[in-house]
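Milestone M4 deliverable, item 7.
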Amino acid sequence: MTWKRGLLAAFVVCVPLVLGPAGCGTSDANEGKDGESPLPVGRLLDETDREGRHYREVGKDGAPGVGIEVTPDAGGGWKVRLTLRRFRFSAPDAKTEVVAGRGLAYLFVDGGRVARLRTPGCRLAARLVPHGTHHVTARLYADDGTVWAVRGKPVESTADITASGTEPGPRSPAAQSPGSVTSTTLRVG
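Output delivered:
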């Protein structure tokens, strides 16, 4: 009988060693794509943007950042170019979970949303920026729709532009000139 107990004890000790630990250590099941943690990132604040999307507060160190440059283009519209820091655009079919430094940008003209961006460049049609001075803002969002924020302020950048052209006429090339950038305010993390 004792040899059977010894064999049973050896079996109990050796089988887990051969098969590996069950439920111990780290596992890919707790990690997201590319080894990134799906745990909540940052802290949700009560503050919201104009569309009611909550701010997601992250620390200044490691926070995403954005800069914006708006220049007239030859077609009468405006070229918008974003400069990103510690931020990557997500694919259009990305899950609605939060991953640090990932998401999309919304583009606003005078506070009204005009574009959803998943690349750092786009073109604004002249009709979106009529004659006068306007504020063009790029704001960063996480994939769950929350606004990336640092110290209670959204991570965004604004360029003030002046559209000096008038309504285009049939023979008025100068009337198609979109204008100029008068100043740029940069908010990066």
